[in-house]
């Protein structure tokens, strides 16, 4: 059985393009033009992954409202924002509401497919027993690669898939500076420097929310970032 994906996008041409492209990648894909239309369908049956635009028709934040409702119903349902809106505020709002990732519409189809694949892998990994886990540990940090899970002092850090791979890149070699290209390659994203910077900011914020004294991620100006050994 192919995995089911729903795309909630108000632009008919964009919606049709994504439905067709992801169907070619082997998924069962349904498209919805508005929040009410998607909610009516999801009340009958939830898909296995949802891709949402932020602005839907006459609702500038309809996607955020949809995400909030979905997350309340299904804690582990993979939710991905795919939108033209790339302000830091929008990204943070989307992730705060429980989205797993936030991509802008200039992302290539192969990157989108890689991200969807990563989200499905994460869900499968979380269902497996943890005994077989290979983990990286540095002081209060524990990173479980198969489950794509990071804890600090035993408390889970709610990282998106992108953020997880960026942390993974740094903690594998503490003290080694990773430049933006290396971070992008590991996270399977192609973004500008400002977007990498905002990902790092959000990673820091999530650790700081758990531990106000956190200073594990160091910026090496003009070069990149490293995990403090």
UniProtKB/TrEMBL annotation:
GO BP terms in the entry: regulation of DNA-templated transcription
InterPro entries given in the database record: CheY-like_superfamily, OmpR/PhoB-type_DNA-bd, Response_regulator, Sig_transdc_resp-reg_C-effctor, Sig_transdc_resp-reg_receiver, WalR-like, WH-like_DNA-bd_sf
Keyword Isomerase: no
Domain OmpR/PhoB-type: 133-229
Keyword list, A-Z: DNA-binding, Phosphoprotein, Transcription, Transcription regulation, Two-component regulatory system
Residues annotated with 4-aspartylphosphate modification: 53
SMART domains: REC, Trans_reg_C
DNA-binding region: 133-229
Gene Ontology molecular function, alphabetical: phosphorelay response regulator activity; transcription cis-regulatory region binding
GO cellular component terms attached to this protein's record: cytosol; protein-DNA complex
Domain Response regulatory: 4-120
Any Pfam family: Response_reg
Matches recorded under NCBIfam families: marine_sort_RR (TIGR03787)
Protein name: Proteobacterial dedicated sortase system response regulator
Lineage start: Bacteria, Pseudomonadati, Pseudomonadota, Gammaproteobacteria, Lysobacterales
């Amino acid at each position: 059985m192919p995995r089911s994906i729903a795309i909630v996008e108000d632009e008919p041409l964009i919606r049709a393009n994504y439905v067709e492209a992801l169907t070619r990648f082997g998924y069962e894909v349904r498209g919805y033009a508005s929040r009410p239309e998607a909610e009516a369908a999801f009340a009958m049956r939830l898909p296995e992954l949802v891709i949402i635009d932020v602005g839907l028709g006459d609702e500038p934040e309809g996607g955020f409202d949809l995400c909030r409702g979905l997350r309340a119903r299904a804690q582990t349902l993979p939710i991905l924002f795919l939108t033209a809106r790339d302000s830091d505020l929008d990204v943070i709002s989307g992730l705060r509401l429980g989205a797993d990732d936030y991509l802008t519409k200039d992302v290539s189809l192969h990157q989108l497919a890689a991200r969807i694949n990563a989200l499905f892998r994460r869900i499968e990994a979380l269902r497996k027993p943890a005994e077989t886990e290979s983990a990286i540990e540095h002081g209060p940090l524990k990173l479980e690669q198969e489950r794509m899970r990071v804890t600090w002092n035993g408390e889970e850090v709610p990282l998106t898939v992108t953020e997880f791979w960026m942390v993974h890149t740094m903690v594998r070699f503490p003290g080694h500076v990773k430049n933006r290209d290396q971070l992008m390659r590991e996270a399977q994203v192609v973004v500008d420097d400002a977007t990498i910077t905002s990902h790092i900011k959000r990673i820091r914020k999530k650790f700081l929310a758990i531990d106000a004294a956190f200073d594990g991620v160091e910026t090496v100006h003009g070069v990149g970032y490293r995990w403090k050994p």
